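Assemble and predict.
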Amino acid sequence: MIPNTAGRRISRLDDLVAALPTDDRLRFERIFHLQVTSGQTVPPETMSSWLVDQFGSVDSVRAQRIIRVTNLVTLEGTLFNELRALRPIEAPPASEELEARISHRETCAFCHPFEQTPADPMGRIRGKMVTTASNVAKYDGWHAVLIADEHYPLSLTAELVADYLDVAQQWAAAVHQIDPEARYPFFLWNCLWRSGASIIHGHAQIAMTRGLHYARVESWRQAAMRYRSRHGSDYFADLIVVHRSLGLAMDVGTATILPSLTPFKEKETLIVAPVLNHDLKRALYHVLQTLIERLGVQSFNLALYQPPLGDTPEEWTGFPYVFRVLDRGPLTLPTSDVGAMEFFAQSVVATDPFRVADALRAELLSTNET
Ligand SMILES: [Zn+2]
């Protein structure tokens, strides 16, 4: 089912929550803390025309409504400012110069992976459109690069996205077989330089760690365990129900797409599914298509939180596969999109999750996906 979120705004989340049936409202309040506040400014007359150009009106700058959402389970949170959300969310189209820089293949090592990248000790895994290489400077003991045949990093097809995931999972299984202690896979994808990617050529990565999952993933596992023991219900299932009650959940078969109520940065979208199957791969493709084609995203970070391979001392029962995808801003923007607030306090985000939901809905309807 595709919800209609037209007219809904994050800046009125308090009203939307207040209007929920009691069960849904209590479930929301079990997971999220919501604080609404306003900020006042007194702009001089001399700023008026600039303020109108930037924000539409002087009054909208005089009184600003700020929505602070905190996930009480994971203790992640976001500040949404209605004023910032008024700004257009699409990036300008890439200039010819920018296109030329992205398309430049002459000195690209990843265009020649067999000659210009190392293999892992166990060799390479070759999919339909993706080949693995051993990462030259590793995050961890096992760390591979998944190199697409296609250089241009924003040219995605459903087949390519599925192949990245298939090859990554095959690589993880092969590593686990050789080194059974390595059982915690982490798939990640940094696309273009604002995301931290050092190579332009389309590529994702996968690492395998030992002893304990990576800190942020383990933090979510522990949070879900605490939630289950405190409330007797499944955290991820309830997270989906809360988003759905507000019109922020879209299904692709067994996978559910959720524009996050506590995005770490712009347009963060989660995809939650019980297994890494065809539905989840298609859902990921649709989210990336929506971000790139409909919302003008040029640079993104993506990660997959997944349960470990084999037995572990910790309890992972019920932990789903969860993709996290977010936008890192226009490639021409000279300033960073993260600062002290994001690192040390609570993220500040402009994009309204309901507008991300509108774009996802339009994409899914256009592909007859639901
Ligand atoms: Zn290349």
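The pocket of zinc ion is lined by residues 105, 108, 110-111, 151, 201 (CB under 6 Å).
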